[in-house]
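Here is one chain, start to finish.
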Amino acid sequence: MKKIIPFHSFTILTPDGADEVLQRLKQCLLYQGSFSEESFQITRTFYRTALTQVQGRFEKQSHQTAVHIKITLHPMFMVMLGFLFVMWYGIAVPSAFESATYIYATRQKIPLSSLPADGNITATVIQSISESTDGTLPPHLAAMYLGGPIFVLIIFIISFWADAKRIRLELTQIIRGSSDM
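Its structure:
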């Protein structure tokens, strides 16, 4: 994994002016967003619309226009993903590990003669639960609780890179005017 927050940047050179390139981007039905004379910020109109965001800026050179493009995860997607990870690892996983003691613990009768002399029953119960292996979360469930979101994150990162490759190809065709998209 190269980067924690994936982004991809590249430059497309075209002999056309920035106005022509901007007009082609505006007419393209695959992308929507905001456009100005110097830059643009677009997303796809369908198919993974919330996953990626494309930012670009135009640089006029002597006989060509350079379009500097940066593809990143959409900020709202990152906020949503961060919120879900905080909720999962902050609430769901600790609750699952804590409640596993109560779910899998077996009820045992404690004879009155084994109670501590000082009357601290709570400490005795907590100590017996913590020393017992019957009340722990099974390893396959622990792996699912801890590894599930990481697995989903890896899927999103792979999806981002596949989408970035596709967006690069489409934008190259649109900016150079080599295809009707």
